[in-house]
Amino acid sequence: MSNYTLAVANTLAVPVSFKIADGTKTSSFAFTLVMERQSEDDWNAGVAGEDGNPKSEKIKQHLLSITKGWKDQRFVLDADGQPAEFCTEALEVMLSTVGVGDVVLRSYMKENSAKVKNS
After folding, report:
1. CA 63 to CA 52: how far, in whole Å?
2. pTM for the complete prediction?
3. Which residue in 42, 47, 74, 112 could disulfide with 54, CB within 3.0 to 4.6 Å?
4. What does the pLDDT average to over 7-30?
């Protein structure tokens, strides 16, 4: 076990936004996911298949395991037509929509990665 820790929180606020066809129009959605910060080694281990390479089904499962909540989510609705409270089942519905998992993945990677600071 290491005697060192990072000077940043173990969770991230990950802004997610996308547009999706909605009948004859296009609807936009924007919300924030609360996700665990992962080291590169932990991320790679979580998404790797038996051959060591990332697998799409493993990525989805890993996103499910590291997502802990959401704010201002209006894409997934409950039985009453209201924005669903966060739970794994509601997140699975969200990630089962074609393209949404890719948007979430890109958003997470952007927020979990260090960026060059412009001075």
Report:
1. 18
2. 0.89
3. 47
4. 96
